[in-house]
Structure formats: C-alpha cells, structure tokens
C-alpha cells in the first residue's frame, strides 16, 4: 500500500486517473511526488523502488523515495557527481541500465549498486524548466527489468511529477520576488526618512541629502540603507556636514 494509506489501483489507467485527481492546493509538492513514486512501483512489475531527484543551484537531492535501496542508489551518484539519474535530469534523456553487472558508462557506480542489490534501473527526465532539473528513478533487483511497456508506463508518470515541482518552484520564485520587492520598498522608505532628517537639520536639497548619505556609506564601508537606518534610529551620522 502507498505511504499515504490509499489502496493501490490495479493498472496504469487507474493510477494516472488517481494522480490526475490530486490537486496541488490540497497536497504539498512532497506529498504529490511521494504519490507518484509510490504508485509507479505498483504498475511497473518487478519489486521496484522509486525516487525523485531534483537538481537545483548546483546541488542534487532525493526529495521522495519508496525505500532505502532507492536512496542508496541515488546517493552513490551524488557522491560521484554522475550516473543515470543525474544524466537523465541534466540532459532530458530517458536513461536505462539494463544490467549493472555489464554497465560500461558508469562502471564504478554500477558495480556499487549491483553489490547493494540493484541490477537495473530506469531514470525518466521530468520536464520542469531551465533552472530546475529532475528525474523519476526506478530501481529493480533483477536485470533486464524494463520492457517497452514498462518504459511507456513510466514515462506517462513524468508530467504529474513535473507539474508538482514546477508549480512549487514557480510559487517559491514569486514569493522571493515579492520579498525582494518589499525589501526594496522598505529600503527606499528608510532612505527617504533619513534624507528628510538631513534636509531639515542642515537645510539641504533632496539631492544634497542623498549625497551626504552616499559619502557616509563609502566612508564607513556600509550600505546606504544601513547608514539611513542608524540615522533614523539614533540621529547619528558618520562624517556629518557642518550645520548651515
């Protein structure tokens, strides 16, 4: 049974229908991706384990998994900086290891996971976007575990996982932009307050007041905003001009 406690559907059509009815507003990204990982192991035969790898800002992480074998296989790749799931995520190519005992592209990795118990794997790229790369990884304990039907079924799960990641990333980027905008507005407000204090204290024009803040910023090797905040809070300004 999947980790969410829901009964497993009998075939791929039922599984994809179930995924299609899961809404992001009701589930977190991790919850939806866990559903994808759980359910893909029910419709692709072979006693599989699955995971989702995400590449972001130069790092790789397993965000969900169905068992320790999947985690171990992912982490062996992260340690080496290469392997089928990283290749699939980075290049957008469906990547399969048919038999880890004879794999030549990543021999050290293949030897390590074969000893761990994974003899074949399938990594499905997830079409998320330019900044975020990801892959759905399926690990099998027997060689030659994936036939044409299995590959087709596995690739049909990719859009559901990709939508969950892309939507979450878009939300985070929008939140970051809003935070940055608020920071900029706050900076402008405190600088305007500091300019007003200098204009009143020294009978300056707005441009002259900002010039004083800029000179104090350079002399103290601090940001103009920090100088302005200190002036507003304490009334003190480094290198204050003589009163007129």
Task: Give a short summary of the structure.
The chain has 244 residues and is of the alpha+beta class. It folds into two domains: 12-174, Beta-Lactamase (2-Layer Sandwich); 183-234, Winged helix-like DNA-binding domain superfamily/Winged helix DNA-binding domain (Arc Repressor Mutant, subunit A, Orthogonal Bundle).
Compile the SSE list and pairings.
Elements: H1 12-20, H2 29-43, E1 49-56, E2 59-65, H3 68-80, H4 84-91, E3 95-97, H5 107-116, E4 120-126, E5 133-140, H6 148-202, H7 206-220, H8 224-234
Helix pairs in contact: 1-6, 2-6, 3-5, 6-7, 6-8, 7-8
DSSP helix fraction = 55-70%
Could you say which structural class the secondary elements and strand pairing correspond to?
A: alpha+beta
- CATH class membership of the largest domain: Alpha Beta
Q: Numbering strands along the chain, what is their spatial order in the largest sheet?
A: 2-1-5-4-3
Shape: elongated
Estimate the mean pLDDT confidence: 81
Instruction: Tell me the number of helical segments per DSSP (H or I, 4 or more residues long).
Output: 8
CATH superfamily of the largest domain: GAF domain
Helix-strand pattern? HHEEHHEHEEHHH
What distance separates the N and C termini? 80 Å
Number of strands: 5
> Which consecutive residue ranges, at least 5 long each, have pLDDT under 50?
1-10
> What radius of gyration results from the CA coordinates?
27 Å
Estimate the strand proportion: 5-15%
Number of domains: 2
CATH architecture name of the largest domain: 2-Layer Sandwich
Main beta sheet strand tally, sense and closure: 5 strands, antiparallel
Look up the CATH topology of the largest domain.
Answer: Beta-Lactamase
């Amino acid at each position: 049974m999947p980790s969410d406690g829901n009964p497993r559907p009998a075939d791929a059509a039922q599984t994809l229908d179930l995924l299609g009815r899961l809404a992001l507003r009701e589930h977190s990204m991790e919850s939806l991706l866990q559903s994808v990982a759980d359910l893909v192991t029910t419709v692709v035969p072979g006693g599989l384990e699955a995971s989702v790898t995400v590449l972001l800002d130069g790092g790789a992480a397993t965000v969900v998994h169905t068992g320790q074998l999947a985690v171990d296989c992912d982490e062996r790749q992260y340690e080496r900086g290469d392997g089928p799931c990283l290749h699939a995520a980075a290049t957008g190519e469906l990547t399969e290891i048919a038999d880890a005992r004879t794999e030549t592209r990543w021999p050290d990795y293949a030897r390590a996971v074969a000893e761990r118990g994974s003899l074949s794997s399938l990594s499905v790229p997830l079409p998320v976007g330019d900044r975020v790369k990801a892959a759905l990884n399926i690990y099998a304990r027997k060689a030659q575990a994936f036939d044409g039907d299995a590959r087709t079924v596995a690739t049909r799960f990719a859009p559901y996982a990709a939508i969950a990641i892309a939507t979450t990333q878009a939300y985070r980027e929008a939140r970051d932009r809003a935070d940055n905008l608020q920071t900029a507005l706050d900076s402008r407000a405190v600088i305007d307050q500091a300019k007003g204090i200098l204009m009143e204290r020294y009978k300056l024009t707005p441009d002259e007041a900002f010039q004083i803040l800029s000179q104090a910023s350079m002399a103290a090797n601090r940001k103009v905003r920090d100088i302005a905040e200190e002036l507003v809070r304490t009334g003190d300004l480094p290198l204050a001009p003589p009163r007129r």
